[in-house]
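Project standup — Tuesday

K.O.: blocked on the structure for the chain from last sprint. Re-posting the sequence here as requested.
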Amino acid sequence: MPWPKSSSASPNRPMPATHASRSSSPSTISAGKEMAVGRYYQQNQQYIGAINRYRVVIERYQTTTHVPEALHRLSRATCHSASRARPRRRRRCWLQFPSSDWYQDSYY
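H.V.: unblocked you, prediction finished:
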């Protein structure tokens, strides 16, 4: 038995503004989940796990808005971990986001 067609749902009708503002790409959602896990690791002082999560966001989800925060948190987590040479390398990445609030928090 086929599904009945709804008379109210039309493919030619525009999407309501409330739904359009809530829609996100799958990569943004995935990047947000990676960031949430990274923040959890960082709060519990598990810096290596946090560093790995932030690196995933930076490498896989470069077009999302989570990258500046990931760079900021990556440099902070790296400072707390044993390695001291890595934060210097991360500074070059910040040249892509000079107007970001995360950049301001990291360097000013």
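K.O.: great, moving the ticket to review. Residues 25-107 form a domain with the Serine Threonine Protein Phosphatase 5, Tetratricopeptide repeat fold (CATH 1.25.40.10). The chain has a mean pLDDT of 75.
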